Amino acid sequence: MTEPTSPWLWFGLALGQILLIVVFLLISIAFLLLADRKIWAGVQMRKGPNVVGPFGLLQSFADLLKFILKELIIPAGADKVVFLLAPIITVTLALAGWGVIPLAPGWVISDINVGVLYLLAMSSLGVYGIIMGGWASNSKYPFLGSLRSAAQMVSYEVSIGFVIITVILLAGTMNLTELVEKQSGWFWNWNVFGGGLANLPVALVMIPMMVIFYISALAETNRPPFDLPEAESELVAGYQVEYSAAPYLLFMLGEYVSIVLMCAMISILFFGGWNPGFPTDFMATWAPTLQSFVLLLVFSAKVVFWFFMFAMAKAIVPRYRYDQLMRLGWKVFLPTSLVGVFLVAGYKVFQKVYL
Amino acid sequence: MALQAIAFYLMATVTILAGLAVVFARNPVHSVLFLITAFFSAAGLFVLIGAEFLAMLLIVVYVGAVAVLFLFVVMMLDVDFSQLRQGFARYLPIGLLVAGILTVEMVMIAINVAVNGAAAKNATPQASLPDVSNTETIGRVLYTDYVYVFQAAGLVLLVAMIGAIVLTLRHKPGIKRQSIPAQNARTPKTGMTIVDIKPGEGISE
For all residues of chain A together, what is the average pLDDT? Predict the structure, then answer.
């Protein structure tokens, strides 16, 4: 896209793009949320939501109406400003991450040099929404939930960071668009297979790294089996206990947006983003918009696949105990991902000399 | 440029106001939250001058990890505010002294930059390698010219980490801990015994 000349035109255009992606994202979330519940129900041999609309397709919109129309209750001892700020921060940060995600060739709001780091920063800021919400509620269970969540998210960020470093080392760039373009062509160019046939041995490192990223992403987004911040058998609903109506809706929305963001990150970092896994030369004669649209569908399919994996994990894996969670994060994932970084870095250095 | 100017003044104002609020907020948790706001808008200022790598590091390291621990500790502390304010008059002279020295230093640096710096010579600051992103530039400098200093800093952090572990790690006797290898190594043979019970006898230990 050509750069508009006037800064105000550029400002307006950027605002329009942001609005477009947010609306697109929120509508997708409404159906992904339903899919989540349906998959969960399917695994347990139930029907799931099936009353509102055909196959329950409008269930999320009915829930939305309910959340908006219900009474907003703020506990008497709560710190009002922080209490209301917390869900807003959660949802804002989750949406902010989407600013650098390349959806299709040329379809990205902000194509910055340090896109990968920006995503890491936004997901690490997500902890503030939860910890502020838990503290401002002025209640024991939410506070315990938010403390758990803060420790959990800080722990798993470390392994996510190391896994991301292996990908950056392999691709040699932190720009997400470049990262995706390097994985174009056949599927063995995807980072999970080492990024090219010549690097195929690296797949032995990258496949475990991908698994670690997936599990850490579950922990980072407080999804089952790591949903200890809201473990209902211990803490009622954790940091969300005192929330009702629209603030609760914002919390839930932020959670789902960041889950889908994590799915998008796995697709981009390891599975080639919008690349379908085979050369797309035959599309060269198509109109650019049509190309981008088709590749957007490919990207969405990958994101939906990973969301399905998230939903399956929720359905079939029992919840971890808290000390097991910490043990997994610090004693298993951290050393493993560190070794992965060493191996990939060593490979990148010696590849030039010996191969 | 107009947009950049607006962004600069917006973020600079937020940084300064948040910095003031850190000092003046009555509730320590609010102070930490304002501190985070100040960090965040300072990161925004870094982005504006083109140091996007530093900005992201500031957010990931300080806001994402260090400030969370701050918040953690401050929330857990049961601070008595009236007691905190008792020593205010006593410590005021020394506080003023430190603040005064810092102010003098900053003014001296500012004067020096204004007189001898790039702005005085009417030159714009130049990156050493204009066509390389600043992540790569920092990497090149850090791992060549300053590699010993960099490694030494790493060693200092390692020593601090080991020190913290040594100070806090205690193995209390008498606490049952989960041993996952021991659990996984259990087989039906070691875990249970099959007893053939004759009628009317029961089990004798």
Answer: 85
Give chain B positions within 8 Å (CB) of A7.
1-3
What is the residue whose two structure tokens read 């996984």? B184
- In this structure, are residues A330 and A155 in contact, taking their beta carbons and an 8 Å threshold? yes
User: Considering CB atoms only, which of B56, B68, B75 is closest to A127?
Assistant: B68
Q: Which residues of B touch A154 (CB under 8 A)?
A: 64-65, 68-69
Q: In chain B, what is the straight-line distance between the N-terminal and C-terminal CA atoms, in Å?
A: 88
Give me the residue spans of the domains in chain B.
88-121
A288: preceding bond cis by omega (within 30 degrees): no
Tell me how far apart the alpha carbons of residues B169 and A125 are, in angstroms, rounded to a whole number: 29
CB contact under 8 A, B52 and A150: no
A260: amino acid identity, one letter: V
Question: Which has the minimum average pLDDT: A97-111, A313-327, B36-50, B76-90?
Answer: B76-90
Please say if the pLDDT value at position B118 is more than 70: no
Helix (H) or strand (E) holding B90: helix B88-116
DSSP collapsed to 3 states, B49-62: CCCHHHHHHHHHHH
Q: Is the ipTM of this complex over 0.85?
A: no
The region that residue B20 occupies, defined by phi over 0 for left and psi between -120 and 50 for alpha, beta otherwise, is alpha
Gap between the terminal Cα atoms of chain A: 40
Placement of tokens 């922990």 in the chain: A219
Greater pLDDT, B203 or A297:
A297
In the block, which residue shows the tokens 């060693």?
B155
C-alpha B2/C-alpha A216 separation (Å) is: 42
What's the pLDDT at A245? 83
Do the chains contact at B36 and A82, CB–CB below 8 Å?
no
pTM for the whole structure: 0.83
Residue A296's alpha-carbon distances to A10, A178, A321, B183, in angstroms, are: 24, 16, 39, 48
